[in-house]
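Appendix C: a fully annotated inverse folding record. The material below is reproduced so that readers can follow the format used throughout the book. The structure is listed first as tokens, followed by the designed sequence.
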């Protein structure tokens, strides 16, 4: 899985295999082997790739399908694509109330009753 993602990320940046190889300190053949899943990058190379392309290691390795930024803020919340706008609003309101320390239980009960 890492091979297809790596190739896609590289091409999105309009970067050649030769350019990527130079950045990583490996040969063109090695980059080609990564992209064709004939070889898996060492962990330190994976970290370099995640930083270079600003994606999470989970995305790079195929564990998730959304290319979350490696530098995303701690406060980032990812909603399922199947969630409706009203459900998202409810979750945001719930978390805001919880963070404020007020009315968590009543908000949950009200939201469950209406939702």
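Designed amino acids, in order:
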């Amino acid at each position: 899985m890492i091979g297809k993602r790596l190739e896609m990320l590289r091409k999105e940046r309009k970067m050649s295999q030769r350019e990527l190889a130079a950045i990583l300190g490996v040969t063109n053949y090695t980059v080609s082997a990564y992209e064709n899943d004939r070889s898996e990058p060492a962990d330190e190379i994976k970290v370099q790739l995640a930083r270079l392309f600003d994606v999470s290691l989970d995305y790079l390795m195929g564990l998730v399908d959304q290319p979350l930024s490696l530098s995303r803020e701690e406060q980032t919340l990812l909603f399922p694509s199947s969630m409706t706008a009203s459900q998202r609003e409810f979750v945001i309101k719930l978390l805001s109330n919880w963070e404020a320390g007020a009315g968590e239980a009543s908000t949950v009960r009200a939201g469950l009753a209406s939702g």
